[in-house]
Amino acid sequence: MSENLLKNRAGLAPLIGTALMLAIVFLIVALIASAFFAGNNPDNLDPAPLADLRVYEYNTSTLKIEHRGGDPIDFSNSTTSVILDMAGKNNLLEASNLEVLKVGDTKLLPLKDRKGNLIPINAGDFATFKVIDLRTKKPVFIQNIRFMNGIDTEYQPGNDTEYQPGNDTEYQPGNDTEYQPGNDTEYQPGNDTEYQPGNDTKYKPGIVGYYYQGTHFNGPAVKHTDSRLKFAENTYLAASIHGSDIQNWPYGILNTLDTFSVVYEGFIKIEQNSSYTFYLTSDDWAQLYIDGTTVIKEPSSSARHPITTKTGTIYLPAGYHKIRVEMREYQGTSILFLEWSSESFSKCFVDSLYHTASPN
Asked: What is the pLDDT of residues 336-355, one digit of tens each?
């Protein structure tokens, strides 16, 4: 019996050895596959950085880049790609000279591809500037740019006298009689029956915007009526996150994305007597007036800032009140949001906006 048992064990030994070898092989293959798929699964990677940049033409062959918020971006390694998309052609820029760009940094980027060739730019050209994280294949930042084929002297020190101290009387105390107490009877109690109950039929939904080329609120205006002010250019941190009622605003209205100004005028309908807080989000500059009172004001007519929300509170009785919003855009991201809140409702976009005449 023991002899038969030994023979059986001797016969099983090769089978057991083969099974063990197969098990080891399968285990090794499983470990390799697991490591491979884990390394190639974007879900296991660190998320792509997000940054709010300001990109604009510095001269005929250079872009100027300002880091205004968000994560630092490392351009010195092979994980970040910078693309200038012009008419569907992706030009891969050599951006390693930017090294690590952090909040507050401002650096210059030559308009050269990775072979050192200068990318030809013509006046009036539009392009999309893209920063792509190659690990996740996701955008870090996207912005549309309009090239003026040279330094834009409007904003160079000494060239734009409009914004020099003492030269811009538009907003100097005592010079703007439109909103001075006693000078504008339109907004004096008892003088403007336009806001009295029973006159509602003269108001039509929507507020009228007057769009101007240039940042001075002058020249021929393009009119456009909207139900609310919720606009942003198609940049990753503006329209893609915050939303916009008009895609790539205001290109479809004014045929430009930079160096424009807009004035919105109309009426806001107040349902009940209360104090109302307004939130005006803009980039680069915006102010809000209601019944001639400055509710939200910039520190100066030449002030500029990244995407910023400013607030102001005013008591308003029930009825219609005249509203005016002014906005300036120089270069970079364009955005304009108008929201409000009160004791009876939480923060939301202002949609009780009206006008008394149809735009041409």
From this structure: 999 999 999 999 999 999 99
